[in-house]
Every structure is written in structure tokens, then in C-alpha cells.
Design brief:
Elements: E1 6-10, E2 13-15, E3 24-26, H1 29-39, E4 44-48, H2 51-54, E5 66-74, E6 77-84, H3 86-91, E7 99-106, E8 112-121, H4 136-139, H5 143-150, H6 158-167, H7 171-177, H8 181-197, E9 199-201, H9 211-220, H10 224-234, E10 236-238, H11 248-262
Parallel strand pairs: 4-8
Antiparallel strand pairs: 1-6, 2-3, 4-5, 5-6, 7-8, 9-10
Length: about 260
């Protein structure tokens, strides 16, 4: 897998943290991006596991794995363009971590004023960031690699997990269905869409059930409270969750899964 050029550093709006800090807010992404670059002299450090803040003060090593040389305000927050170090390229450091964690400056009310630097981490603290391994479709994956990735296997991967959560399908039933060639074939269009759109971690408590959720609940006779609890437990949503109702691909998957749900 090639190195991702752009990394998701901050989501827009209200931002919660898994360790209980915050909530924070990002309201003027363009201003924060410009301020951050200016304060950093045009490039922000990208290290590992916050070594600059945790290891360096104790005399430990804190090498930069790359330099964030550009920041863009997009519809889903602030993204940074990274120039990877030669050492990081040789070791493919981005393959060893799940996500990116920014170090931010914020006011007492939680309003974010700047990004100081960022770290490669396996347990990002901020909720709502695109994982390192889900930015590849637009930035680092060619068409052939994308087509290889959309082919489902007989065991669930992260994309299957996101689809199962999106459609309210029990993961155990979903994995049984993966044994079916017909089911795997039906998954390909939705897997392609999910890969291109990306999978995002969010705080379920902040998101009401949308039209697509209500449609799923009605069609499958689910209990709304249990459905929400499942979403919260999984901690996964996708950018596709904002669509109204289910498209044809989703309806076919829900229809097929019914037979597997009924089987022992």
C-alpha cells in the first residue's frame, strides 16, 4: 500500500474525545488551517505516539516521520498533506498505525484555535477522524488496487463491519452469509462505495437516527433502542449514513441476509 498523501487531522463541528476531554469545536476550519501553518513556520511535525510531547522532554528520541506542509479546509474538516521522511518510506510507517492524533490549542470553551503537530497512533483519541487505512481510495490507491480491494472474502474485514453496522445486520449472520458466492457478488458495489467514501468513527450519542436508519428498523422489525445501542457499541458510521432511505444495492443485501438470519 502506497503512502497516503493527505491525512484527516480534525473533523468539523463538535468533537468528542474517548478519554473524556472536551468537547471541542472546529467552526472556522480555513482560519484554523492558516493559523496552524503560520505558527509552525510552514510545516508541522508528524511523529509517532506523541514522542515530541512525551519522550523528548525526558531526553528520549522523537524523530519526525514526516512533515505536514499544507492544510486544507474540506467539508469534513481539516486535512494535512504530508511529506514522509525517507526512513518512514523505507519502513512504511503508515502501515503500522491505525490513525492520526493531532495536538491542538483550544480556548476554555473548547473552541479550537490551532493544530501544533500530529502523531501516528493506534488509538486516536478524537472521535470522527478517517483512519489511515481508509484514505487510500482517493489519495494512494490506483484503480487496479481499488478493484482488488472491493472483492469480499469469506471473513469480515473493516469494510464489511461498516456495511453490517450501516444496515443493522448482526455481524455473525453477515459472516455466515459471506460463504455464499451470490451474497459476495451483491456486496461489491456497496464495498466500492464505502471504500471511496471512507469509514469514520463518530460519537453515536451526538447523531439522531436518520431516514436510512428508520427505514432499516421498519423493514427488519428492529427495536430502535437496541439498534442505537448496537451502533454505539460498534462505534462505526460512514459518510453514507446521511442518505435518505436505502438504495437498490442495500435493499438486495438486506433481502438476501434475511435467509441467513433465519437459518441456525
Amino acid at each position: 500500500m502506497a503512502a497516503p498523501e493527505w491525512l484527516h487531522l480534525l473533523p468539523n463541528g463538535r468533537i468528542t474525545a474517548k478519554d473524556g476531554r472536551g468537547p471541542f469545536r472546529l467552526e472556522n476550519a480555513a482560519q484554523v488551517a492558516a493559523s496552524s501553518l503560520a505558527q509552525a513556520g510552514g510545516k508541522l511535525v508528524l511523529d509517532e505516539n506523541h514522542a515530541t510531547d512525551l519522550a523528548a522532554p525526558k531526553g528520549g528520541a522523537a524523530p519526525a516521520r514526516g512533515w505536514i506542509v499544507d492544510l486544507q479546509a474540506r467539508s469534513d474538516g481539516i486535512w494535512g498533506r504530508v511529506l514522509w521522511s525517507e526512513a518512514a518510506k523505507r519502513s512504511k510507517a503508515w502501515m503500522e498505525y491505525r490513525g492520526v492524533s493531532p495536538v491542538i490549542v483550544h480556548r476554555k470553551d473548547g473552541m479550537i484555535e490551532a493544530i501544533l503537530r500530529a502523531s501516528l497512533v493506534n488509538q486516536p483519541n478524537l472521535v470522527g477522524l478517517t483512519s489511515l487505512h481508509n484514505v487510500f481510495a482517493s489519495d494512494a490507491m490506483d484503480e487496479q488496487a481499488l478493484e482488488d480491494r472491493v472483492q469480499p472474502g469469506q471473513q469480515m474485514d473493516e469494510i464489511d463491519q461498516a456495511i453490517a453496522v450501516h444496515l443493522g445486520i448482526d455481524p455473525k449472520v453477515y459472516e455466515r452469509a459471506l460463504a455464499s458466492t451470490a451474497f459476495r457478488a451483491k456486496l461489491i458495489p456497496m464495498r466500492r462505495q464505502f471504500i471511496k467514501e471512507g469509514v469514520h468513527l463518530v460519537d453515536e450519542a451526538d447523531l439522531p437516527l436518520g431516514a436510512a436508519d428508520q427505514t432499516i428498523i421498519a423493514k427488519m422489525g428492529l427495536d430502535p433502542a437496541s439498534y442505537r445501542a448496537t451502533l454505539a457499541k460498534e462505534g462505526l458510521r460512514t459518510s453514507l449514513h446521511g442518505v435518505r432511505g436505502l438504495n437498490e444495492d442495500a435493499r438486495e443485501i438486506v433481502s438476501i441476509i434475511g435467509a441467513f438470519a433465519a437459518s441456525p
